[in-house]
Amino acid sequence: MNPRYLSVKLRRMVTEMKLRGTGVTCNICGRSYTSFLPSSHPPIPNSCCPNCFSFARTRLPWLYLNKNTDLLTRPIKVLHFAPEIVIYKQFKNKSAVNYTPCDYFSEGYDYPEDCVNIDITNIPFENESFDLILCAHVLEHVPDDGKAMSELYRVLKPGGAAILQVPMADAEET
């Protein structure tokens, strides 16, 4: 086995053991810690789960979907742009979910084997195809975000849900 991989794995295990406690619980993997790890870009304290590496921006929509909707309790079709690996794994484990992970492929990135290369401004699916669309931290990178939102609306079924997240800068940063 690769020594670098072992070193990283060992550091992760030690960090996770040091942080075990009851201050915070990750709603994706279910583990509890005294605090989450800080994120590095941007620097946000108490942000990253030491076990599944989910961030608040990932845990929040998962919490919403589990607590405030019935979307995860019935058969649904999901379109997920730039899928976070922890959410990807959750949906892949749900037999009632017809899950389509997608991204606009760029060189230098690894994508899951079943991830579809899609331009969000020209989505290749029929009108009213999906019950749920997830799209976190994508629209701010799209030159014609209006066209992208129009396409998302077009493929969303009536009564469906779309969770679209974009980062907000502090007033001091703008």
Write a short abstract of this structure.
Helix content is 28%, strand content 29%. It contains 4 helices and 9 strands, in the order H-E-E-E-E-H-E-H-E-E-E-H-E. It has helices at residues 3-19, 56-68, 85-92, 145-155, and strands spanning 20-25, 32-33, 37-40, 43-48, 76-81, 97-103, 116-117, 130-136, 156-165.
What does this structure look like?
With 174 residues, the chain is an alpha/beta fold. The chain folds into 2 domains: 52 residues, no CATH class; 107 residues, Rossmann fold. It is built from 4 helices and 9 strands. A 5-stranded parallel β-sheet has the order 7-6-5-8-9. A two-stranded antiparallel ribbon has the order 1-2. Strands 3-4 form a two-stranded antiparallel ribbon. A hairpin with a 2-residue loop joins strand 3 and strand 4. The termini are far apart.
